[in-house]
Task: structure prediction
Amino acid sequence: MAERTRARRARPAASRTAREPRPPRGGDLLRRVLVAIPAIVFAIVIVGAGGWVFTLGVLVLGVICLHELFRMYEPLRPVKLAGFIGLAGLAAAAHAGGERQVLLALVAFVPVMFMLALAMPDLEGEAHTRTEGMAMTVLGIVWIGMAIAHAVLLRDLRHGDAIVIDVLVGTFIGDTGAYLGGRSLGTHPLAPRISPNKTVEGLVIGVLAAVLATWCAGLYQDWLSGGQALLLGLAVGLAAPVGDLFESRIKRDAGTKDAGSLFGPHGGALDRLDAAFFTLVTGYYVWLALM
Result:
């Protein structure tokens, strides 16, 4: 009798477990979309405004991303102040000047960084050299700072506002296509030592999605031919996964899953903009050649 009673008590728990709904496959995608909405609104506002509003807007994003990079590699003691000064200098040079001034700002950044590094106090038992800290600072400026500068340069070109939007649309639609394609059809790992979840199938679908998205965006721009839109989309589609893998390598070496927590479970600003940092630079030179 006691055994039957225990069995009856156990059965509801088992049935509850069996009836427990599994998380929907599209749940993660929905969360991605919801998290992205404020970022999309922010992007539209600053791109539409242009000028110093756009420059300051992307500079804020650059500062957040640079902070996340420096925090991942805090043990190396990057020269943070020099990094933030260099980032602001590159953004200002891009808007107030052009390519020549951006190069000048990059060159001037090196001695400034060196002087600020010399002023940093030595820590007892420090495991890393000051050179390693400067190297990490230079990486941040070349990777993040030059991307921010090229975003400003691109926005200031003729039809630059629309091209920035086209590039971002291609980047994020391509990323979504790669995510869904890899999750549904992916069987061949793309770069298992860097990012085990990325697949060749996801890469192909992502590139095709980026090309299609950019071409569709170009349909509403009578000054952009279909061939130009396809070429721009192809360049974006190929550059985006390189940027994604680049950041994945940096995070893996740092021993962290996400660069930050600005977007909650979907990581930080650097996690969301890693591909865009490559596609905006690529988009600038492709559009410059097509003009």
About this structure: The two ends are 87 Å apart (CA to CA). DSSP finds ten helices and two strands in the chain. The first strand starts at residue 189 and ends at 191.
